[in-house]
């Protein structure tokens, strides 16, 4: 009995000593976060077996908070969940003091590609400030899903994306037709002329030009490109010329003693290389010709003339990637050769595609091609089948979108295509008088309940 009393007295003394040393407080502690690195600071509230988590859910594209998201601790009973407020903020109370996983749920939203699990270490009696968790709208998560259309444009053809030198923002140039307007008297006639329209990538019209020219009017333009200075070049087989315009839309008159792009014949398309040189698909010559920045014959790094790339008589649109490789459409090619990837030195690096039919990898009147430099995906406008086909960097078929019609995501004689730096795809839907925008070619999870 005496020993038991002594042990009781000793235990009481030990507790009293601990309380005296720490004043009964739970220390603030930083615990590493597996998902985000660094550390998270926990603020003590009281000594208990649960804690609290605060945080925010944001849109991966805009950075804005997303309201009414269900935020839940996975795999605990009873369930611990809450809803985000109007600014995307949330507070999870009575969370078990252990390592937990947070999952989200909101209709029409999913996790961005590559997003990891959100893991939080909860200590008893602490409030954890968790890092922001991102969601993205599912229309942006499905590869090449329709996003929006830009209307009120007449029979658009080629399309190109460049940088406005005044604002340093990305802009979009489109060839289209509209009624001619007299530049002196502002008289609009029923006579249709070709021009260039400049849009912001959100679709707002910023400028239009080339449609009031008299002596240098566009006759049947097919190709379009923008150089690093914002100058716009139009390949016009109708006048057998390349027309140049400033970033502000003014026509740039060739010097009287200079022949620009000598030797071209029926130019179908034009692209700018990273060197500032030009590649022109001269359909009348059945070849791609190279020109320097002054629009004379191009030379390579050794000073030698760059020879043209010879093709067959079906040469149409082309694209260029970040390595200056050219992607050519040859609508008269033999089996397996409709699309060619060719180096600037003329080396054939890849060929694929067949003429006729509507199966995967078959084309009916292909007109334009574009490359997504983020992942190497290749898009081909299959005009006769009213669709766009997507291939990987090795030429393997991946998917397609479109179909005959006037609804969202449908086409009636699509003609041109461009891909911006974020992977968004823009298609000129010629006979529907609009441009359609599609989401990037990223395959994301279709579930927003965890990764």
Percentage of helical residues? Answer: under 10%
Treating each run of at least 4 consecutive H or I residues as one helix, how many helices?
A: 2
Oligomer: single chain
Poorly predicted regions are 4-47, 443-451
Task: Give the N-terminus to C-terminus distance in angstroms.
Answer: 60 Å
The main β sheet shows up as: 7 strands, mixed
Q: Assign the structural class, choosing from mainly alpha, mainly beta, alpha/beta, alpha+beta, or little secondary structure.
A: mainly beta
Percentage of β-strand residues: 35-45%
Using the CA coordinates, give the radius of gyration.
Answer: 31 Å
Question: What is the total tally of β strands?
Answer: 36
Whole-number average pLDDT? 85
The best one-word shape is elongated
Walk me through what this model shows.
By secondary structure, this protein is mainly beta. The protein has 2 helices and 36 strands. Strands 1, 2, 3, 6, 8, 10 and 11 form a 7-stranded mixed beta sheet that branches. A 4-stranded antiparallel beta sheet has the order 5-4-7-9, with no helix packed on it. Strand 30 (366-371) and strand 31 form a beta hairpin. The chain is elongated and about 85 Å long. Mean pLDDT is 85; it is low at 4-47 and 443-451.
Please specify the SSE layout and strand pairing.
Elements: H1 2-22, E1 29-32, E2 39-44, E3 50-59, E4 70-73, E5 81-83, E6 89-96, E7 99-105, E8 109-110, E9 118-121, E10 126-129, E11 133-137, H2 138-141, E12 146-150, E13 159-163, E14 170-181, E15 188-200, E16 205-209, E17 223-226, E18 232-236, E19 241-245, E20 267-272, E21 278-282, E22 287-291, E23 309-310, E24 315-320, E25 326-330, E26 339-342, E27 348-352, E28 354-355, E29 362-363, E30 366-371, E31 378-382, E32 387-391, E33 397-402, E34 414-419, E35 425-429, E36 434-438
Parallel strand pairs: 3-10, 3-11, 28-29
Antiparallel strand pairs: 1-2, 2-10, 3-6, 4-5, 4-7, 7-9, 8-11, 12-36, 13-14, 14-15, 15-16, 17-18, 18-19, 20-21, 21-22, 22-23, 24-25, 25-26, 26-27, 30-31, 31-32, 32-33, 34-35, 35-36
